[in-house]
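Quick start: read one record
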Amino acid sequence: MSIRRFAAHWSPATWLLTVLCIGIVIVATGAVLSQIANIVPDDEAMRERLSLAVMVIPFALMVAALFAPLGYTVDNMGIIVNRLGPKVCILHSEIKEIARVDRRQIGFSLRLLGSGGFMGSYGRFWSAGLGKYRAYMTNSKDLVLITRHNGERFLLSPFPADGFLEAVEDGRGAQT
């Protein structure tokens, strides 16, 4: 089996939320930094501390971007969720079940730890339909649910989803 790569297409909502977050953070950070000298005109040390404190939110967005899904790779060993930060690997031998799912099957989700819109939805979530799961998705149309033998669930959004399922089945078949 050859290595196959799949896109992580952003939905319009993901684009909107990401652009809004970045825009608001840039404008707010710039506005506060430009006014720090007026806020504490006589204390250089305090101005430096405030400047550093203001940079926490832009830094947090940069860290969050490390964990956003950039795409998906299927090879002989398993599935890789490509990110700027550490990649997520799901071995074919660990997969109990893999299937397309509809957003309605998942229902309302609560974010436990992660991002719910900035550069996608990724991290740990809970829903009544799935229970606890890990999401690495950028849209809600191309959803694929992977369940490991230990019960751990992953929700991905590879494009095209049907081609992704075929590649995974080919990879799983090559393992036997």
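The longest strand covers residues 109-117.
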